[in-house]
Amino acid sequence: MPLALYTCLLWLSTSGFWTIQAENTNTNVSMRSHHRGLAPTNVDFAFSLYKYLVASAPEKNIFISPVSISMALAMLSLGTYGHTRTQLLQGLGFNLTETSEVEIHQSFRHLHHLLRESATSLEMTMGNALFLDHSLELLETFSADIKRYYDSEALATDFQDWARASRQINEYVKNKTQGKIFNLLSDLDSPAVLILINYIFFKGTWAQPFDPESTREENFYVNDTTVVKVPMMFQSSTISSLRDSELPCQLVQLNYVGNGTVFFILPDEGEMDTVITALSRDTIQRWSKSLTIGQVDLYIPKVSISGAHDLQGVLADMGISDLFTNQANFSGISQEAQVKVSKVVHKAVLQLNERGVQAAASAGVTLNLTSEPLTISFNKPFLILVFDHFTWSSLFLGKVVNPT
What we know:
Elements: E1 3-13, H1 29-56, E2 62-64, H2 66-77, H3 82-91, H4 101-122, E3 124-133, H5 140-150, E4 153-157, H6 162-176, E5 194-204, E6 216-221, E7 227-243, E8 249-255, E9 260-267, H7 272-278, H8 281-290, E10 292-301, E11 304-310, H9 312-317, E12 341-352, E13 374-377, E14 382-388, E15 393-400
Parallel strand pairs: 3-4, 10-13
Antiparallel strand pairs: 1-5, 1-12, 2-15, 3-5, 6-7, 7-8, 7-10, 8-9, 9-14, 11-12, 14-15
């Protein structure tokens, strides 16, 4: 299990590169064209959200699943009306004069379908569910729409018995993520009448695995004054890498069996903010075109990182603020008393380990080397970007400051 990622998004409410890289003959033209319009918008939102989060906590680890956040917010928009809906969809990056709401939801439905196809090789489970107080009458149109476009469901629970309701939600998430996300809610959380959860479980398998026998305890330099010990994985193989001539960083690209691809980015000393500021579709496209394949001695920490982000302030800063005020219009979910979102929590866990397919007998290319291999060691703060390279969805964006 070389890389396992688990994330959950929780809502509590009170009352060229970015076109498909490989064509699947079984995927119809309509689905491909729908997806092509969605990927750039989603990735732009992903980098924007990521930069806001990094700026809000500059010394901390950051880890999010942008595509699942986009999907959850788009699904939530089906239950909104008026300015709340417009603000939410525009906040996600959509130009509503160019793209209709129906086209947006159809595109997400196709993306969800493509990601589920990817999941057969990436072992990925993702989905959404809505929990609402049993005193509210759910509109059948909303229930049908979230099922149709997002394969989601709405479940009634008794939020007057908060301890029991939180256990029900925790158990639901635990079952859906095969036990990888548990105790999502506590008895101390504020009671609610409407909760939307979004979850994704991901486990990739390296195309070129690391050798467990080579993992050693090494120093990781958090900053000038802090050094921690981490188990450092190692492989010496033919790897795509780049010493960027425009940005102060070095990077490698590793692939999973299936559609997953990962960029590990190592900024130069003191240049983390410079690199993060420059992250964009254009930068990723330039990197992809500039990577060269060669022999690399690669060191990456074997780590497990968990973090939780309350996204309310960040989304409000990005212009999605109606959800959290009395101006919120959720009459598309229920015509009962007015509700608003009071809390948004995004939780993620990252695990990096060695194994891939046939780790003991990995097939590789033998080169006649005339020079020493390039050594790249991720022994100081770095960035990690995980994409599904068929849809170019940003599955995960991370900043690792302290791997312990």
